[in-house]
Amino acid sequence: MTSPEEAVERAKAEAAAARAKGGYREEQPGFEVSPAARLADWRLTEWAMIEPDPAKAYSTRRLGAPITWLKRGLLRLLRQYHDDLAGQQSRFNAQIAAHVMSLDDRVRELEEQLAAERRARRGGDPGG
User: Fold this and answer.
1) Quick one: which of 59, 25, 42 has its CA closest to 101?
2) Rounded CA gap, 45 and 95, in Å?
3) Max CA separation in the chain (angstroms)
4) Contact assessment for residue 73 and residue 67, using Cβ atoms and an 8 Å cutoff
5) How far, in Å, CA of 44 to CA of 38, rounded?
6) Residue 72: which residues within 8 A CB-CB, separation 6 or more?
7) What is the Cα–Cα distance from 5 to 79, expressed in whole angstroms?
8) pTM for the full predicted model
């Protein structure tokens, strides 16, 4: 039976031998950026609104019922403060989502204009 220290040393030696034979070769990182998946506008607006769920305030500890009761009591006592914070954050998120959607529309229009210009150039080009 081998000790953990011996096993570590043997693993290091085997890894070094594998590297010498070309194992563990890493590919060069690419600089190509893949396009992000397009989010639907409804998804952005849905995510912008903050709606805390008081039912998620619970404790999974043994005898957690008093802790759950305390958490829910604090939520009730601080409801106005939390609602104000959530409202401010939701308004900010909605403004950002609207701005992102308008930028997305502008980019789409510019891409369509560019594609139309390229088609026009190809159509006027006799060799095209």
Assistant:
1) 42
2) 10
3) 83
4) no
5) 11
6) 54, 57
7) 57
8) 0.53
